[in-house]
Amino acid sequence: MFKGVLCRESLAMEPTTKNIRFATNYLGRIHDEIERENFDYAAHFPNSKRAILFAGSKGTVKTIGEALDLHLAGIKRTIQASTYRDYKSAIEYHLKPAFGNIWLKDPSISQSPALSCFYNFFLCRML
User: Fold this and answer.
1) Dihedral of the alpha carbons of 11, 29, 51, 36, in degrees to the nearest 10
2) Predicted confidence (pLDDT) at residue 86 exceeds the cutoff of 50
3) For the chain, what are the domain ranges?
4) Which runs of consecutive H residues, i.e. helices, occur in 1-127?
5) Residue 96 has pLDDT above 80, yes or no
6) Are 5 and 50 in contact (CB under 8 A)?
7) Would you report the helix, strand and coil content of the chain in percent, each value rounded to 5?
């Protein structure tokens, strides 16, 4: 149980004696991290649908879409209304549909040169 939810995740491993021993030790490490309250579900199971459910504390930016929304809110009063409208349009109709659901901690970001460039140039400067 993690935060009141029964979680069952599988490891992509053959059920050999060595792998079962590894999984048992891994489960012990997870239990230890949960007990010490520093368990990061997404770090252990990044492809899990439950990772979104446990993605940090309230107010934590989790996806590129959320970071873009935060950026828009932060610049709204510092730019002209027409510029804000253009930025919002670009974000809502182009950036968020393409990148909005990608986790900021997603390891696949480093695998895509275009996405990695976008992340490094834009998001790192605004957060």
Assistant:
1) 170
2) yes
3) 17-53, 64-126
4) 17-35, 41-44, 50-53, 64-75, 81-90, 96-99, 113-118, 124-126
5) yes
6) yes
7) 65, 5, 35
46-73 pLDDT, tens digit per residue, is 667 666 666 654 445 577 888 788 778 8
Query: What is residue 69's predicted lDDT score, i.e. its pLDDT?
Result: 83
Long-range Cβ contacts of 121-124 (<8 Å, 24+ apart)? 123/64, 123/67
Q: Which amino acid is at 18?
A: K
Which residues is 2 bridged to in the sheet?
5
Both structure tokens of 103: 């986790």
At 59, which amino acid appears? G
Q: For 97, what's the count of Cα atoms within 13 Å in the CB-facing half-sphere?
A: 6
